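Write out the 3D structure for:
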Amino acid sequence: MKPLHERPRHLGLAGERCPVCSEPIETLLNSEGRNPMRCCWRCEVERVEEETKQLEALEAFYYSQAD
């Protein structure tokens, strides 16, 4: 799957804004152009970054326990 910043982006309805940060709501598609996901670009990038940090922390904990 392509990184989030390389995925196709399509704006939602005119004037539709995210209730959290006021950025335009978009329909994001996966790398095959399927599975539309309606969200704010900024909030989605922040969510993915937070998930990545959590996974890295879990992996670090797991490997520290394996020793």
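The chain has a mean pLDDT of 78.
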